[in-house]
């Protein structure tokens, strides 16, 4: 037995003795963590589940004793970027999905404090039960994805950026001590869950996209429910118009006519998202449609090379005025449709009465879009992972489950201007011609000046050559984007070394912080290129 194997065996023995055997997964269950829809591959030493703070401390102490890296995950649904896999081989995965308590909700100011394992669906159901005038902004990922997990990657929700809603973090450091950011440790503070900064330096940001500690709770602001709430779906007839649309969206955001994330998707993104939902809706209404019929229905009902989806919400008088401006602006590029929960309900009833089943099926398919805008999570978008390969998949809600379908993402950032969009189109179109692929692309407005391009590519996970070719394409694409100044806003686990520049003064400062807070390099070694010297220099 090799030394490393001996360390792992001794760690597992002591972890089972200290925590209980049920908290250390058997080998077969642990190996399931190595399945990954993005085709990444790592060897995991062990998987340990923690339900509370004392258990995390024990695991940290044992990893330090046996010189093993510890990689915390919440729900582990970082799909397309590496899922639950560590950056380095041989690490212990710390599964925090069992820490799933909603600790506090302020019913007046609309803030929520929760643990890492709390899911979007859990928050949605809790707020419904409490009948509060707030909702949590959700992502289009999955009902069972972790709120904190997405937050720590600076994820984008449907209407806002998650990080913009962050008030406070509670973090366990490598020595087992706990720090609360902002006013979290101030005695008798009445604003610790309301104001993010506290006195002196604000340390909250250093725990995002880093490995300085293990986040054990977070406080976020919820969104207030509004009197009027419309979702718009604007068709964009031709790709060449997208650059001008982006200029117009920038002006609408700067003028505060729009105050949301606008999602601008290409034809392929729309097709792989909606076609499987049409297929499922058809079954619900007793209709059998072929793949071609599903895709044809999507293309006939939502015409145009691209489409833009966003939200206008607020006082009904303001919403009415803003709708007119958005309609006039985006209507120049194609048809603009408006959805509310009531309009959708009435339209569905009308279609049932007059027997227009195919129109009814399409309305059923787009219903999750309205749900996202109102804070209702859905897992339906996950069907896009299997749709390029098959019509149905039994375990579709877990894309990591062994199947043919693979999916990988990259996410460069662009200035929100027509010249940047035109250059981006040139890059992606050249790659499509060179490699004979077609990217699914969504351009998300991150603020009033910047856009996140979400680019995905499907591949056959069972073909090793195809997996490697797809990774190469995406790496080359990200490198080309970076060369033009379009740097990534988040990275998959293979890209840290390539894109995290360890030779800048900022990087050297980050490394010094890592060395101070985690001198043995125990926590998530290599994450976003951060290490602490001796421990990270060894192979895990």
UniProtKB/TrEMBL annotation:
Q: Does the keyword Methyltransferase apply?
A: no
Q: Note the PANTHER family from the entry.
A: ARYL-ALCOHOL OXIDASE VANILLYL-ALCOHOL OXIDASE (AFU_ORTHOLOGUE AFUA_3G09500)-RELATED (PTHR11748:SF114), D-LACTATE DEHYDROGENASE (PTHR11748)
Q: Which residues form the FAD-binding PCMH-type domain?
A: 40-225
- The superkingdom of the source organism is Bacteria
What processes does the entry annotate via GO biological process terms?
A: lactate catabolic process
Q: Name one GO molecular function term.
A: D-lactate dehydrogenase (NAD+) activity
**PROSITE patterns from the UniProt entry:** FAD_PCMH (PS51387)
Which Pfam families would you find in this protein's record?
Answer: FAD_binding_4
**UniProt entry keywords in alphabetical sequence:** FAD, Flavoprotein
The protein here is known as 4-cresol dehydrogenase
Query: Do you know which InterPro entries this protein is assigned to?
Result: Cytok_DH_C_sf, FAD-bd_PCMH, FAD-bd_PCMH-like_sf, FAD-bd_PCMH_sub1, FAD-bd_PCMH_sub2, FAD-linked_Oxase-like_C, Oxid_FAD_bind_N, Vanillyl_alc_oxidase_C-sub2
Quick check: keyword Acyltransferase in the entry? Answer: no
């Amino acid at each position: 037995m090799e030394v490393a194997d001996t360390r792992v065996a001794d760690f597992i023995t002591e972890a089972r003795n200290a925590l209980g055997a049920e908290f250390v997964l058997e080998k077969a269950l642990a190996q399931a963590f190595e399945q990954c829809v993005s085709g990444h591959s790592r060897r995991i030493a062990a998987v340990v589940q923690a339900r509370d703070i004392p258990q995390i401390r024990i695991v940290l102490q044992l990893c330090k004793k046996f010189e093993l890296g510890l990689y915390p995950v919440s729900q582990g649904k970082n799909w397309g970027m590496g899922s639950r896999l560590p950056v380095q081989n041989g690490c212990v995965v710390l599964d925090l999905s069992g820490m799933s308590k909603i600790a506090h909700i302020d019913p007046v100011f609309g803030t929520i404090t929760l643990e890492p394992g709390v899911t979007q669906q859990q928050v949605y159901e809790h707020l419904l039960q409490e009948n509060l005038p707030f909702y949590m902004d959700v992502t289009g990922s999955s009902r069972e994805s972790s709120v904190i997990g997405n937050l720590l990657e600076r994820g984008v929700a449907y209407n806002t950026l998650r990080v913009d809603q962050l008030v406070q973090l509670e973090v366990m450091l490598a020595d087992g001590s706990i720090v609360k950011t902002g006013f979290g440790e101030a005695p008798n503070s009445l604003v610790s869950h309301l104001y993010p900064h506290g006195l002196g330096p604000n340390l909250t940001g250093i725990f995002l996209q880093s490995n300085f500690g293990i986040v054990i709770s977070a406080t976020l602001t919820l969104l207030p429910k509004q009197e009027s709430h419309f979702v718009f779906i604007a068709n964009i007839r031709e790709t060449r118009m997208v650059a001008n649309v982006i200029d117009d969206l920038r002006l609408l955001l700067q003028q505060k006519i729009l105050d949301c994330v606008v999602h601008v998707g290409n034809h392929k993104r729309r097709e792989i998202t909606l076609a499987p939902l049409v297929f499922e809706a058809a079954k619900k209404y007793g209709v059998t449609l072929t793949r071609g019929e599903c895709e044809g229905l999507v293309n006939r009902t939502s015409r145009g090379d691209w489409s833009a989806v966003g939200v206008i919400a607020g006082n009904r008088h303001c919403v009415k005025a803003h709708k007119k401006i958005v309609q006039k602006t985006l209507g120049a590029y194609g048809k603009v449709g408006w959805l509310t929960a009531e309009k959708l309900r009435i339209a569905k009833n009308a279609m049932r009465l007059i027997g227009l089943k195919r129109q009814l099926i399409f309305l059923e398919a787009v219903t999750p879009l309205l749900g996202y805008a109102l804070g209702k999570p859905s897992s339906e978008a996950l069907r896009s992972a299997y749709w390029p390969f098959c019509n149905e998949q039994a375990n579709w809600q877990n894309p990591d489950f062994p199947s043919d379908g693979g999916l990988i993402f990259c996410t460069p950032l662009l200035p929100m201007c027509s010249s940047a969009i035109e250059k981006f189109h040139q890059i992606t179109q050249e790659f499509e011609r060179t490699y004979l692929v077609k990217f699914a692309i969504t351009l998300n407005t991150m603020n009033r000046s910047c856009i996140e391009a979400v680019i995905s590519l499907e591949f056959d996970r069972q073909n090793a050559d195809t997996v490697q070719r797809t990774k190469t394409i995406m790496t080359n694409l990200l490198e080309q984007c970076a060369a033009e100044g379009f740097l990534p806003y988040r990275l998959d686990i293979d890209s840290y070394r390539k894109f995290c520049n360890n030779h800048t003064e900022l990087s050297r400062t980050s490394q010094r912080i890592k060395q101070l807070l985690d001198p043995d390099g125990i926590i998530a070694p290599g994450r976003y290129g951060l290490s602490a010297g001796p421990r990270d220099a060894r192979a895990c």
